[in-house]
Amino acid sequence: MTYRDGLLLAGIVALCGTFLSNITGTPVLALVLIVGLLVKAPSESDTHAVGLDLAGGTILKAGVALLGLQITLSQIAALGWATALLVLLSLVITLALGWQIGRWAGLQSETAIIAAGAVAICGASAALAIASVSPRKAENTVVLAIIGVTALSTVAMIAYPAIARALGLSDVHAGILFGAAIHDVAQVVGAGALISPAATETSAIVKLLRVACLVPVVFFVGALFSQRHHEQPPRFTLPRFPVFLIIFAMCVGLSSAGLVPEYALSIANTLSQACLILAVAAIGIKTSVTQILTSSGRILLVLVATTILLGTGVLGSLLLFFDPVSI
Q1: Measuring CA to CA, how many Å separate 147 from each of 144, 176, 228?
Q2: How far are the Cα atoms of 4, 95, 211 from residue 123, in angstroms, in the given order?
Q3: Which whole-number Å values give the CA distances from 143 to 123, 184, 188, 289, in the listed order?
Q4: Is the four-CA dihedral 76, 78, 81, 85 of positive or negative sign?
Q5: How far apart are CA 25 and CA 305, in angstroms?
């Protein structure tokens, strides 16, 4: 058994997608995924399989864990209790409604929660993290979630700044809207940049709060998955806490304490992105396009419906409970 062939193939796909992203300006994860889908999915006995599984498993979890270095507790505290409560409530409600919509649409619980989590938390990274604790193989769901949230985030990046200006939201409250309701980090920052530096900074911090919620959400979802597939379900048993979530929390602690120098943070951020890109490349290669087409409509329904609910809920809360022009 060798990991070399699969990792090399995923690496080539990742480099091609990154190159195309640099040329076109399209989000890198989406392009890497598309390039991966163009490569024929290997069979389980293929020499590439074990390397691809490593990239889509352990390397993926390493990338998610390193995201914790981007977050500090002081950033979260600076938001204030009202903003933090808005973000947390909207996240929980989006997860619950997304799961329910998915079940109504006939999706399995695992598929529904992966799609809902991609919208509620942080797009592709959340879909990858939640799928990593799923007892079922979920490559098709992850692929559709990444494609869907990338497209929806791009639409939101253009639409939400226009809505914020039309409604007279302050720069700070516009940033709250972008950070709480747009899925992918790049589009959150892009939307803020269309308003002002203050909106950009606020949107990034709010988004980081959503990213920080990966730990409790993934652990809770993993616990539910564990109980649903337990051979003796009557007794609740707490699942083993995933190592990558422990590392994520430790990274937040190190960053909050100021123990990580700037150059190390930069290196860790680059390494995290590289791990996620490699993982997405592997997932794309392993995925059958034919299987995607059979379930795409229902998953996209969850993504679109939860995006609309999240955006209108956050915007409505800002207009009802916050003074939109006070800051």
Answers
A1: 5, 24, 28
A2: 29, 13, 10
A3: 11, 15, 21, 10
A4: negative
A5: 27
Q: Is residue 327 part of a domain?
A: no
The first and second tokens of residue 260, run together, are 């990580």
Query: Quick check: is 193 in a domain?
Result: yes
Span 7-43, pLDDT tens digits:
999 999 999 999 999 998 888 888 898 898 888 666 6
**What end-to-end distance do the CA atoms of the chain give, in Å?**
60
pLDDT band per the 50, 70, 90 thresholds, residue 327? very low
Q: What is the span of the domain harbouring residue 171?
A: 4-321
DSSP states along 104-172: HTT--HHHHHHHHHIIIIITHHHHHHHHTT-SS--HHHHHHHHHHHHHHHHHHHHHHHHHHHHTT--HH
What total of structural domains would you count in the chain? 1
Give the distance from CA 27 to its chain's centroid: 13
Q: Which two tokens stand for residue 180?
A: 């709480």
Q: Which of 130, 183, 129, 174 is nearest to 303 (CA)?
A: 183
Q: pLDDT category, 93, cuts 50, 70, 90?
A: very high
Please state, in angstroms and rounded to a whole number, the distance separating the CA atoms of residues 207 and 196: 16
Tokens 């990580």 locate to 260
Residue 326 lies in a domain: no
Which tokens is 211 given?
Answer: 């990213």
Range list of H helices, 213-288? 214-228, 243-256, 262-286
The closest alpha carbon to 321, from 202, 179, 176, 203, belongs to 176
Is there a domain that residue 304 lies in?
yes
Give dist(CA 147, CA 174) in Å, integer.
26
